[in-house]
Amino acid sequence: MIWSPTxxxxxxxxxxxxxPDPSRPPVSTLAQDVAVMEEQRAGDWILARTQNGWRGWxxxxxxxxxxxxxxxxxxxxxxxxxxxxSQFPGAAPxxxxxxxxxxxPRGPRPKPASAKPK
Length: 118
Known about the structure:
Blueprint: E1 7-8, E2 14-16, E3 28-30, E4 35-42, E5 45-50, E6 55-59, E7 64-65
Antiparallel strand pairs: 1-4, 1-7, 2-3, 4-5, 5-6
């Protein structure tokens, strides 16, 4: 897991527990302004991990959230939209390309003379 801070410890620091249970005594404290990453949540408790890998349960209501960058909305591909001129009122019809000279017109092919009717 890549460490990416989600919160900082508030002024005055905070107590840390080995389990999310306030009836147990705290096992340590975190100094103020220490950046932590939320690994897990259990109600108001957060399992916080510091950059050096130290982990402990803290009261998540006291932590200060670090604003996370917001991913840009998907705007679709960066390709210009091509709109046919015929879609615009008053536009002249698009010229039709001329077919190759000396060729048969498109359409169904005539059956060869050797084909027998069914």
